[in-house]
Amino acid sequence: MIKILAARFAAAFSAVAGHPFDPAVRVSQFSDFQANGALALARQLGRPPREVAAAVVAHLDLAGIADEVSVAGPGYINVNMAAGFLAASAAALLGDARLGVQERAGERVVVDYSGPNVAKELHVGHLRSTVIGDATARTLEWLGHDVVRANHLGDWGTPFGLLIEHLLDLGETAAAHDLSVGDLDAFYVAARAKFDADPAFADRARSRVVALQSGDPETLRLWRLLVAESERSFLAVYATLGVTLSPADFQGESFYNPMLAPLVSELDGLGLLRPSEGAQCVFPQGFSIPLIVRKRDGGFGYPATDLAAIRYRTQELKADRLVYVVGSPQHQHFEMVFQTAREAGWLAEPARAEHIGFGQILGADGRKLASRSGDTVKLAALLTEAVDRAARIVAAKNPELDPAEQAAVAYAVGVGAVKYADLAGDRIKDYVFDWDRMLSTTGDTAAYLQYTYARIQSVLRRSEESASGVSAVEGPLLLDSSAERALALALLGFADVVEEVAETLQFHKLTGYLQSVAGAFTAFYDSCPILRAPSPEVRASRLGLSRLTARVLRQGLDLVGIVTPDRM
Ligand code: ARG
User: Fold this and answer.
1) Assigned fold of 446-559
2) Which residue from 213, 306, 299, 329 is spatially nearest to 252, judged by alpha carbons?
């Protein structure tokens, strides 16, 4: 809708301005849509805004699209859509498998997300990157982009010295068993304790780091064993979470090792390298601190690896867009890496890189979420608790569902609640983790959307129509009541929202939109009988609206990785 209106408005604005001018079309609170561009144009032309708005309206051709256009307030142009246009557009959407969203000529997009560290379990600190990153990958892929998922595992560095020595002490078989039960943290803690208490062990660990770095085959074999066990445990959590990361997406820090020395020479050749306190550094423009690419001891660190990764992604993978879904504390790191890559010529227009930051998850006490003992909360445990809590709710609300179905619903609701809570707020802000609120079937929750979806499926089942697939209807939908009209208008907004979110990666706009659709459906459901509609035509139209609502909810939730059970 916004795109159609924007095109018509653009013609009128450029007629008044004498050059192209952004009409700034938005969804409106006071009418269906509004164009705000007249205010900015008036400033540019030095004319009164209402006069400019009136001139735009005089040039505006919305025949067949809108039936009410008016200038309001300081110079907003309000538009109400023509009922016939909404009815025909909604009917067209029913027959469109893509719900009005055009497939793109794909950009290649690298989405860097999750990125846990080997030999440490996934904990809540990784939840947001994993959930937001996966929503990003799913959404861009559905739009037609060629998405490369990059799981930038922390799989290299000094901790491996003590981990490998601890593994040898335990014996490989026993160690592999310990790790396979998934308790990576305990393994690390034990190794660390020995390192601190036993100087001989600490010496062995240090020489082991040297052996690892110099590529000793036996050491590499043991290192690979540790990495493999960690990857297995990460994949198990990803599977529970319903995240699309696969073994092929692991591209850890170690992958870039062979590229680091050449990278530093290249920076040197470009004249970008300067020594600082014994280290080799880059001083990217606009920053007062250096980016250390080679440490005083000759080792390379996190920044060098990210420089190698960005170069690899633009030059080898030919990425057009690089998205890094990593917590906000790393914002400066990424801005410095991007700026260095620009200066080195590794990141040039039209390729672009974005750090998609996010705030922390807080406990009820307003501090970083922690377990009762004060430790970080393991993701696996958190998801188990989510599903257990959801199971209790489902058992109380739907005792008639058979046990297997109850379990499936509890899983969808529990995991959906955790993901949804993570996406539904502005990602830049912290949010408070609150089980009761996130599992409620009313309010801004996944459960409310899932429940609305299941309710529609139940109506469709009873209608004996073939459920929720794509199907053409004959003629326009009938939108005689205000609730039907409002629902159709909401459904027609899907494409606008998805396209905006694909650009901004602000998923709370999508969840907010889905809430407005569910709200419009609830109002429609309460005031418009569907199965007992006054005539077969009205019944067919209302079933069409219901089917379309179900498809929008399902597709919208699927874009963020939330499952929609058919019954609840
Ligand atoms: N392993 C890192 C951490 O735990 C996150 C990796 C993010 N990605 C990147 N390309 N640096 O902080």
Assistant:
1) Isoleucyl-tRNA Synthetase; Domain 1 (1.10.730)
2) 306
